[in-house]
Amino acid sequence: MADCFSSSVEFGLNLSKRVYYGKGMAPSPATAMERSAEGFLPTAPMCYAVISDPEKVENPDIRSYQPYVLGECDPPALIPLQVLGVGMEVECSLDTAFVTVTGKWRVHCVTARSTCDCQVAIPMGEQGSLLGLEVDGSGRSYHTELISLKDEKDKDKVAKAKDGYFLNSRIYTIKIPQFRGGSVFSIKIKWSQKILFHDGQLSVCVPFSFPSYVNPVGRRISKKEKIFLKVNSGGATEMLCKTASHPFKELLRQAGKLNLLYEAEVLEWSSTDFNFSYTVTSNDIFGGLLLQSPFLRDFDEREIFCLYLYPGNSQDGKVFKKDVVFIVDISVSMKGSPLENTKNALLTSLSQLHAQDTFNIIAFNGAVSLFSSSMETATQEAILNATKWVDTNFIANGDTNIMLPLTQAMKLLEKSTDSVPLIFLVTDGAVDDEREICNFVTSYVSRGQLVRTPRICLYCNHYFLEMLAQIGRGHYDFAHDLDAIDFRMQRLFSTASSVTVADITIEGLEGLDSYELFPTHIQDLSFGSPLILSGRYSGTFPQSVKVTGTLADMTNFVVDLKMKREKDIQLSNVLSKRHIDLVTAQAWLLKSEELEEKVSKMSIQNKVPSEYTCMSMVLVQSDEGKKAPEQFLLQKAYKKLSFQSLEMNNIQKLFLGGWSLGFGDVKATAENLAPAIKEAKPPEGLLGKAASTCCSRLADNCCGMCLLQTCNFMNDKCTIVCTQLCAALACFELIKCCIELCDCDCL
């Protein structure tokens, strides 16, 4: 998908050379950096004109009288549109960043008498989730909204949703129909992404590097570029700035709060991604406890609480020694780059073990193979032997059975006492007995055994992994791109293996009438990640709670956290995505329709995509310069008050796909299909679909040489009759294809 998009942009840039800007004027050509290994993928929020008919390509203000071009562009060319204005706001709260980008684009490459669709590309940072998109221009306005998948009237359209999709794990695209050449439209995009934590630093990176060819052509007029940054750590601890990509001016500095502004007159738009890193200054473990009332229209009327712990300075702190069992899937679906990348990450992880750590490796498909019958001390000799064993035994074949190696790993770790036992599971498959596996681990933990199960997965049941990690007090990760396996697995291992406080409990919540904690099983505090617990409660919250645990030197850890009413951070927004993911995992495990309905409500209320909702673009059309129809304004007000929808005849919807991770594909795993087979493909045109169906059937059942030899024995009249018959059959087949492929309701 990404390669096809990049090729279409390259084709569009070549096609845009037809546009005449005036004597001696031309857009800046693509630089060598912009023609990087990723091709022409967007490195900032971008808009593209979707060109199927090259004859439309023309300056809407100046006729160039270019020669007529025959044919059509298939797939359509994508011409990057000129940016007339852009600004960004970044709000960092706890471990989540909310990004809002506003900008204006002009359809500079289509004749004034023609129209074209526009493709909006939104590159996001780590774990990016689109929260909203608003488009306004040419008498039309669009905005995104989430609808429940239980809406019977929309199910067929949702299944065919193709106006929005991911190019890769971080770039989402949306097609907006029909903009007139020369028109100017504005866009407001909002998304959330995770703030990364490494070596005591929190960092946020937002794609904001615009290519040179989106700068308006003409006189070099200065343009205003603006970035506003707001940071709130939630506590009273001082923050220190470490790195900043743009020269910011300080507007506000208070304990736990920081506001910065970058504003400048520029000749070209930003060619640098937005990067900012900071530390919350403390050498010791510290935390906070935040309370907040739900907002007026919240369907859950219980109060909100959030408890967080930061690990302090990793250079001064001690970590637990580790007993690690690596469980690696070597079924045939892992063949190629998935298994090679996993192998590289595994060997790197082994090299990071300390001399007091122990390890073992289990390779599994339908059967299991152990590196050693017992845990091995991480000596250089043992690691060298493990490397040779991996090279010999990591051969992809067979099917997938997770329960057997997981059971053996737990038996290997039964004797762990003063160390952190880690089960590191790497698989790309979904299996039939996932719920049985979760129940098995639950019963094992409830017997008093300490099992922490961090893991990474390529393509399988995301929520199975999340539930299994939650039960085992561990972590999980999910690699959407095969190239990211090595990096993400090493990062996950680093987080899971740097535990500084284990066996954490919270005392003081027993006096509440009721409470719900996310996650239900509390993870360990690691130098690789802060610990954030949250939930809802009824009753009177205590003035402080006591957090206890065990330090790496086996002494007790105790800290009292005083309650604070939070006013600046909207906790429901910060916590919504993690709550939705955790409740979705519970709904999957328990097969609970009640929890599914809860997820749907949380998703619609907080505008966060989920498995049980679908994102749509709502079109409201009015005369240019006038307000939106009164019906629509009434509908919008009603929905805000009741979270229900009123159907209006003059409001159109475009359904956007790509936001569902799914619950794994057991059938694909059973058939040993590799993840690459399930990669999304670009939509084909109507004739392409027809040809791929009809012509392929004919080619499969007819030999070309036999057909030619048969025609030699036919007289002219017979040839004419056959030709007419074939033409008639072709017409019937074409009509059939049109009926099957048409997405509208006319057929």
Structure commentary:
The chain has 747 residues and is of the alpha+beta class. Among the domains are: 1-128 and 170-281, Immunoglobulin-like (Sandwich); 286-316 and 502-569, Sandwich (Immunoglobulin-like), CATH 2.60.40; 322-497, 3-Layer(aba) Sandwich (Rossmann fold). The chain is built from 15 helices and 34 strands. Residues 449-459, 640-649, 676-705 and 743-747 have low confidence and may be disordered. It has a ten-stranded mixed sheet with strand order 15-16-13-3-4-10-6-7-33-34. An eight-stranded mixed sheet has the order 28-30-19-18-32-31-27-29, covered by helices on one side. Pfam families: VWA_3. This is Inter-alpha-trypsin inhibitor heavy chain H3.
Structural class: alpha+beta
The helix count comes to: 15
Low-confidence parts lasting 5 or more residues at pLDDT below 50?
A: 449-459, 640-649, 676-705, 743-747
Beta-strand residue percentage: 25-35%
Computed Rg = 29 Å
Helical percentage: 25-40%
Span of the ends, CA to CA: 30 Å
Dominant shape: globular
- Main β-sheet description: 10 strands, mixed
- The total strand number stands at 34
CATH topology of the domain at 1-128 and 170-281: Immunoglobulin-like
Write out the strand line-up for the largest beta sheet, numbering strands in chain order.
15-16-13-3-4-10-6-7-33-34
Pfam family, one: VWA_3
Protein name: Inter-alpha-trypsin inhibitor heavy chain H3
Domain VWFA: 323-492
Organism: Cajanus cajan (Pigeon pea)
